[in-house]
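Example 3.2
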Amino acid sequence: MRPTLMIALVLVNFGCGSTTQPKAAPKPAPVEHAKIVQFYPTLATIPKGLTGKICYGVENTKKLELKPPDDDVYPALTRCFDISPKKTTTYTLTAYGEDGVSDSKSIEVRVGAPPPRLYDLWVNSIDVGKGEEVRVCFKLENVTKVRVGPGKLDAATNCLTDRPSKTTVYKITALGGDNQMDSGTVTVKVH
């Protein structure tokens, strides 16, 4: 056998010149970092003295922290809890993952004007003769403006008077800060 042919046979027998590639080592799974997928107040402005809610959702999280603390928070895809801030407050939620990486988000919740309140609405009679006097009175809290009708309002007593000629609906609307309102109606039948 010729020497060059022998070298070629040796190379072929030992895999030199083979087209098969060695297998690559498997890639490690990508690390999933903690992620806040939602964090919001149900109301951007909470009327003073009332309760609102904050909702959140997280993924790949082992621990949560809320500042300022207002409720216990724990990892969940979706969860809401009550808040009662005394003043406008910025809340910061931080999610910590198994890999030590964190994700933070902040929201501001305003505290607005207390809601207006119309109460103790009463009428001297719900059934009157044509032209008889009707008197509708009420009490108010946290009101910036009041609208009544029909009839004439005596602001000192919070009563309106009227002499209806037909069945009439009297409406009182109490307006407060932040465009809030409360209202009530009384129907008086005229016979």
